[in-house]
Design brief:
Elements lengths: L1 H11 L1 H16 L4 H23 L3 H25 L4 H15 L6 H30 L3 H29 L11 H16 L8 H21 L11 H10 L7
C-alpha cells in the first residue's frame, strides 16, 4: 500500500517527484573522504589537548577521554535532534561531572568543568551541524559545500567573535551590578564541587542501580526494535521519548 501511495503521488505531481529525486541525489552523492574526517578529528583533538592542558591545567589523558566520548554521545544527540528538534547536550555535560569529578577529587574544580564543556561543545556542534544538514537538504545544498562553509565560519569566528565582544564591551556599559553572575555557571560549579568532594557517594541511594537498569532497558528496546517484524514496531516504547520524559521530571504547581 505504501508503494502504491508513493506511485500515485509521483503521477499526481511529477515535477515534485523529480525535484525530490534530485535533492536525494545531491545529498547522497556528496561524500567526504574517510581520511579527511579522521584526520580532521585527530587535528582538533591535538589542538584541544594542547590548549586545555595549557590553559586549564587539565591532565592530558582526561582531555583525551573527553574528546573520545564526544563522538559517541553525539550519536545520541543527533538522533534526539532529528526526532524532537531538541538539543540536550547540556545534560550529557552534567553527566560527565560525575566521573571527572571523582577523578579530580580533592583538587581543583576546573578540570571537571573543562571536561564538561568539551562534551557540551562537541555534542552541540554535532547537533547544530545536523540541523544545518536538514536545512541544506531542503534547499538542495551539497553536504560537502556545507562542511567547507562551516570550517570557514568556525575559523573566522575565532577572531571575529572575541573582537566584536571587546568592541561592544568598550562601547556600552552594562546596567546594574558590574559583577554579573552566571546562573548556569553557578549550577555547574556546584555540581562539580559535590562530585569532586564525595564522588559517586554524592548521588542519592540506589541512583547508580536505577541508571544501570534503565540503560540496559534502552539497549534492549533498541535491539528488539531492529529485529522484530515491522507490524510490532508501533507497539514498542520509543527510547528517545522515554529518555526525554525522564530528563524533564515531574512538573508540579499550586492547585
Amino acid at each position: 500500500p505504501e508503494v502504491a501511495v508513493a506511485d500515485a503521488d509521483d503521477e499526481a505531481d511529477p515535477r515534485e517527484a523529480a525535484r525530490q529525486r534530485r535533492m536525494d541525489q545531491i545529498f547522497l552523492d556528496s561524500h567526504l573522504p574517510l581520511w579527511l574526517m579522521l584526520g580532521g578529528w585527530a587535528v582538533c583533538v591535538a589542538v584541544c589537548v594542547f590548549l586545555v592542558t595549557l590553559v586549564f591545567h587539565m591532565p592530558w589523558w582526561q582531555v583525551l577521554i573527553a574528546c573520545g566520548l564526544s563522538p559517541i554521545f553525539s550519536v545520541g544527540i543527533i538522533v534526539g535532534v532529528g526526532m524532537t528538534d531538541w538539543d540536550v547536550s547540556s545534560s550529557f555535560g552534567k553527566l560527565m561531572l560525575i566521573p571527572f569529578g571523582a577523578m579530580n577529587a580533592g583538587s581543583s574544580l576546573i578540570p571537571s568543568l573543562a571536561a564538561c564543556m568539551i562534551i557540551i561543545s562537541g555534542c552541540g556542534a554535532a547537533a547544530g551541524m545536523m540541523q544545518n544538514f536538514k536545512t541544506g537538504y531542503l534547499l538542495g545544498a551539497s553536504p560537502r559545500t556545507m562542511v567547507v562553509a562551516q570550517l570557514i565560519g568556525a575559523i573566522a569566528g575565532v577572531a571575529i567573535a572575541p573582537a566584536l565582544f571587546e568592541i561592544f564591551n568598550a562601547a556600552y556599559d552594562l546596567p546594574g551590578d558590574p559583577k554579573l553572575g552566571g546562573i548556569f555557571g553557578t549550577a555547574y560549579r556546584l555540581l562539580a564541587g559535590i562530585f569532586a568532594s564525595d564522588g559517586i557517594d554524592a548521588l542519592p541511594k540506589y541512583c547508580i542501580e536505577f541508571c544501570l537498569v534503565f540503560a540496559l532497558l534502552a539497549l534492549v528496546l533498541n535491539v528488539v526494535a531492529d529485529v522484530v517484524p515491522d507490524k510490532w514496531g508501533p507497539y514498542l516504547p520509543n527510547t528517545m521519548a522515554l529518555s526525554l520524559g525522564l530528563m524533564l521530571g515531574p512538573v508540579g504547581g499550586a492547585g
